[in-house]
Amino acid sequence: MDAFEIGDLAQEREQSGERYLEFQKLPGLSTGIYHLPAESVDTQQPHTEDEVYYVIAGKGAIQVADEDRLVGPGSIVFVERHVDHRFHSITEDLTIFVAFAPPRGSLAEV
Q1: Other beta carbons less than 10 A from residue 79's beta carbon
Q2: What distances in angstroms separate CA 93 from CA 6, 29, 35, 102, one per listed residue?
């Protein structure tokens, strides 16, 4: 069994200086923690894998293709591969659990 604590992962991500920390990578799935400070700009590009976001903390909005919705603790958003998406209007620091299937970057053209 692999088990993780959000507080430990958040601390590790913060120490890395990066917004995203991948903490598990398996043949069919990868998981990570994504952090976006209030009022920041999310510059991510569409991914080559399907993705699920689960908002742990914070408030903001997400745009997926031409749909827009508010997100907060407990929000779950699925984003299909190759679809443009980004968080915006972040009013409270967002901490987000992220799952990619298959693993992040595994379907990227080489």
Answers
A1: 21
A2: 15, 26, 7, 28
Q: Which residues contact 62 (CB under 8 A, 6 or more apart)?
A: 53, 68, 69, 71, 77, 85, 86, 87, 88
Take residue 108 and report the two structure tokens written for it: 């990227």
User: Tokens 């689960």, residue?
Assistant: 54
Q: Which of 48, 57, 36 is nearest to 103 (CA)?
A: 48
Q: Is 92 exposed, middle or buried, given 0-12, 13-18 or 19+ CB atoms closer than 10 A?
A: middle
Look up the pTM and report it: 0.93
CA atoms within 13 A on the CB side of 19: 13
What domains appear along the chain, each with residue ranges and CATH number?
A: 6-101 (2.60.120.10)
Per-residue pLDDT of 54-109, as tens digits, reads 999 999 999 999 999 999 999 999 999 999 999 999 999 999 999 999 988 888 86
Beta bridge pairs of residue 92:
59
